[in-house]
Amino acid sequence: MDTRKEKFPYGIPGHNLSEIEREIPIEEPPVWPVNDKLKIIGKRVTRIDALDKVTGKAKFTSDMKLPGMLYAKMLRSNVPHATITSIDISKAKSLAGVHAIHLIENAQKEGKENKNGKYPMVKYVGQPLGGIAAESLEIAKDALKLIKVNYEQKPFVIDIETAMEIGAPIVFDAPITQQQDGGDVGETHDGSKGIGNVRGPSTSSFFGGPRGDLAKGFEEADVVVEKTYRTQVQTHMPLETHGVVVDWNSDVMMVYASTQNTAGVRNEMASVFNLPKSKVRVFCDFMGGGFGAKHSAGSFGPMAANLAKKSGRPVWLMMDRKEEHHSEGNRPNSIQYLKIGAKKDGTLTGIQQRSHGTAGVALGAGVGRIAQVLYPCPNFATEQYDVLTNAGPGAAWRAPGNVQGAFGLEQAIDELAEKLQMDPLTYRDHIDKSEVRKVERQRGAKLFDWSRRQPSGSGKGTVKKGLGVGQSTWPRFVTLDSSVEVKIHNDGGVEIRSSVQDIGTGTKTILAQVVAEELGLQVNDITVNIGDTFFPVGPGSGGSVVTGSISPPARNATFEAKTALLKLVAKKWETDSSALFIEDGMVGHKKDTSLKMAFKEATKLMRTSQISKTASRSDDYGGFQQPWGLAFGDLGSVQFAEVSVNTDTGFVKVDKIVAAHSCGRPLNLGQLESQINGGVIQGISYALYENRVMDKGTGHMMNANVDQYKVPFSMEIPEIETLIVEEYSALSSTDAYGIGEPANIATAAAIANAVYNAIGVRIYEIPITPSSILKALNKVS
Amino acid sequence: MEEKNQKSGAKPGNGISRRSFIRGAGLSTAGSVLLTTNAFALNNKEPLTAENEFGPDAMTIKMKVNGITKSLSVEPRTTLASALRDHLELTGTKVVCDRGSCSACTVYLDGKPVNACMLSVFDVSDKEVTTIEGIAKNGELHPVQQAFIEHDASQCGYCTPGMVMSCVHLVDNNSDPNLEDVKNATRGNLCRCGTHPHVFKATLDASKKMI
By residue range, what is the domain housing residue A559? Predict the structure, then answer.
């Protein structure tokens, strides 16, 4: 491979910025300096699709209306565990306006009776059984009521602790392979190990397995914290529900999808219907929120396609609010036992973690890698068990597992600091080896004014103030299967294309920024056409992979297209193309200032209508930690919380959050702030409010709506200050990463630590409700 | 909010008193979602007469939306939100909870914010409907819309139309709102991405730019 050497900025400006020499592929663009010296990157560029959003013009999947389109509803089980003996659709079928009914049936081999029965076994309330397509949504709903499903009910179990008991009703009596949707807990076990409903454990991740000798570690410890932490099940509740519109009237199946992964949905649909990938086109322009739950075609995707096939019409199938809550994903709960030992000087000697969580009928309820990697400790072991219950399947949610894990670990560290009689922030300085978190602690503490923190429980009066801190780490994941096409048209237009989608994170805008910066143009000179699988495949929007995966090939493809264009200009000017550059929309010559040509004029020199270059994510400069795309370094964060606790009412109010974050080279400050605000607000919600309430007697979710599923509204939003630490690692042509997951990890722990600081009693379970505060204060039993 | 409406001397509603607005259809400002929902039911007690009994079949009605009178054929069970979205293809108005708890479907009836998902299209009668599509005039954005763009007040964008409707109503009726006023105006607007801090900033900024 042809390479060249270049010097890159390395480190943290204002702290330890230096240079590092890297050997990079010859075809990659020259190094970008730090953001201060760039024109568009790292600036507060307004979102390129904001106009469509504020005027109501933005068309989401749920807004689609195609000629002849039918509206569909899913038929779902209303019992938690049963065999279906029969489904009578005769009345529904004859209702005027009903065009197609499709029931989900077990695959049957020809000539053989299906041992498992005609219909799949029901395992949770809300399990999809079939679908109806009708001329209006009202007719589809009417028809649904006319379908009679006969069940032979079986014993079921909803509660995690009951499910763990010997003799509990068994959810699956065989190994299961269903994985959490987009989930990420390292190396998930396959569900074949375990007893009864308790499956697993997972004991390792891509960072390895157990380390050292725990028994020896705890022997060496002078101080030990040993506690059990509990977190609740929460449901994603994106404003736009899961769903698709499928138009299958031509050779190509057209799927409009509310998805975080157009290419993933394309692959699933192609696989289900045995079609070549080239005959399925998935499109997602605007997407109304996913937070991890929208990676898959689910059962609604194939259902809509089957109904479209049967009816010969396009089919709109979006979930309603109730379906969204009980069937389309949730963050699993956890019961985490944690034992941490340290020497008198604070040095960690052992971390032992054992967790149980339920993702309902799915796997993936682990608590992540936070305890394994946030602080170096020679002796470590984790056992993470999945407990199966008769409830809707879990799905990935911003930093899957790790948010639960951080709630436990970061409180335990706080408790340890107190036992060691050290300030919690100072103690983290002592045990945390991350340079970026060190800077975040320093700058964050200053902005937050950490020095005003008082000893825990020392406040007088009814309303007590408390300050707390929490930290997090998230890997720098890169999806190597990430490609873009950049086109320079001969009318001066520039276009970038990829299947990568913008789920509200601002991907369209950062792509326009990268292309514009490289071409010396303005952001609004760039047309971004993404979210379409007829374009080169981009990454799914999960794991905070998008920015780090797609911005380098976007820059590289632009650079290649620019080089091709400059060669044409060089030919005309009879000079060397390496002496040419583009700035402020003009092509210029480094030495001969008399040579100038507008970019648009330059594009007229093309013999073809366009110059088109496609690039894919290359390996990081200096390679990866693991060849599949685990980059070196991490995305560190430190969040500070200030709360007021009313000790008479038990009401906790978050007054202020300071969120200090790193994401490599920041690309767009406004959008980063937005996403950090979002992660923090979801963290506040997790800490204080939301909770899926299940009726153990029926298996139904009791608060499957917006009014009783409490999340923060305007009145609960505190002051949030974000602090973004630039960190250069010289790993790619943009050196940039995402922020979606890191923003959500530390908040709940920081709030729990602040609540402790306020009242002097620690609360080990979220959500922290008024009743849990009053119980902690022994004011109610 | 109540006082603000008085102060600003907002146009008297055509048949909707300020009291019924607060008690019933006035969602974004009414605070408790359950109260809003129930109050709306209480409020909707106009006795039916032979003349205004209709259904179950679709019938053609006329409705003035964003200054244009439109004709549409709807069943009596059709909500205003459905009429706008499914019949008039004004899909900027979003349906999120479909029970008056999230304000994503906020539109104005004679200038006052209501939940379009909680109103029968037949209750609109001669009142004028304004949707998010009718906020920009002659291609010129309302200062709130402009400020939403500048302050990055949308993320996924699904709550944005409802947020804009709540905030436009505030700054159009209160020349000097403070942060608490903005929080009050948007207290019924569900947002899951966490755009609130930027919505607050944008709206306060926009209020300063109102002529």
Answer: 37-44+481-494+505-616
